[in-house]
Amino acid sequence: MSKNQKSTLTVTLLTAFRVVIGWHFLYEGLVKLLMPDWTAASYLEVSNWIFAPVFHWMAANPGVLAVVDFLNVWGLILIGLSLMLGLFSRVGAFAGLVLLAFYYLSNPPFVGLEFGVPAEGHYLVVNKNLVELFGLALVAFLPTTRAIGLDRLLFKSLRTAEIQESSGGKKPESKADPVSLPRRELFKSLATLPVLGAFGLAFYRKKKWQSWEEQNLIDAETAASTKTLNLASLNELKGIMPTGTIKGVEFSRLIMGGNLLSGWAHSRDLIYVSQLVKAYHHKDKIFATLLLAEKCGVNTLLTNPIMCTMLKEYWKRGIGKMQF
């Protein structure tokens, strides 16, 4: 392989790397934007490292949290577009570095600090946030957008304007002038646009996969399926949960049931339901549920010995003090 071929392959692979990271950022941002009540509060509340007080403060202050949520959503979207299109991609890469560092420091996968937001895998120090962080460092310090991306078109145009200004406003006469923009240059500048189109199509198809039957049932205004849920947030709590005392131990008047958490779905002959319930209530989800209950004033869980080991870990990590 010649030196030019190696150079071309390197630029192509780095460009593809930049685009797929941008795809991930853009998707994460759009999902959060279209989720009515999305907030980073739960992610910040479960922070359990040395910066935990800062992240807890962010989650506890509505004004600060609103800013954090806004920067999260639109930061992900704009960074994703920047990386995919190759437009101001160095700025986008550095902004992504800051955002990923924020995610990593709030819930690092260190030994003894495994609890955090639900994850799709098991991590030890290195997780996908850290991998993408180093990936964006590569994108930032080895930029490819002057070769493939809209930055190529932008800087060519700026270069043309500079030369015209220095020549008294006259356009370059030679077709071979380096500031001209032949078809090949335009192709390189717009090469990643089809990827954005593919993203739009994939996102549209994914949205269409939502169950229209369930949506109609949820939106119904009559019959047995009338929508009655009105989900509240922690900020809407109007008082402290009343408690009672039994033999010197204080219990919340409302006690949490643990059947679903331990896999008892009471689904009779629908055997698969228990597997679904256990798949949903994995360890991190259970910990997050217990923590939310405690924040609402529920300090007691009614459960069976299956949960003992998990509750011991819940206490040991200092997540909460739920009693059972």
| Overall helicity | 55-70%
Largest sheet: 2 strands, antiparallel
Distance between the termini: 67 Å
Content-based structural category: mainly alpha
Number of strands: 4
SSE order, one letter for each helix or strand: HHHHHHHHHHEEEHHEH
* Count of separate DSSP helical elements: 13
User: What's the oligomerization state?
Assistant: single chain
Any idea what the radius of gyration is? Answer: 26 Å
Mean pLDDT score: 79
Please state roughly what percent of the residues sit in beta strands, choosing from under 5%, 5-15%, 15-25%, 25-35%, 35-45% or over 45%. under 5%
- Principal-axis shape equals elongated
- Which regions contain 5 or more consecutive residues with pLDDT less than 50? 174-179, 218-228
Strands of the widest sheet, in order across it, are 1-2
Describe this structure in words.
The chain is 56% helix and 4% strand. The longest helix has 32 residues, at 3-34. Strands 1-2 form a two-stranded antiparallel sheet. Strands 3-4 form a two-stranded parallel ribbon. It is mostly helical. The protein has helices at residues 3-34, 41-45, 52-60, 62-85, 89-106, 128-141, 150-166, 183-189, 193-208, 212-219, 271-280, 283-295, 308-316, and strands spanning 243-246, 249-252, 256-257, 301-302. The chain is elongated. Residues 174-179 and 218-228 have low confidence and may be disordered. The termini are far apart. It contains 13 helices and four strands.
Descriptors for this entry?
324 residues, two-stranded antiparallel ribbon, 13 helices, 4% strand, elongated
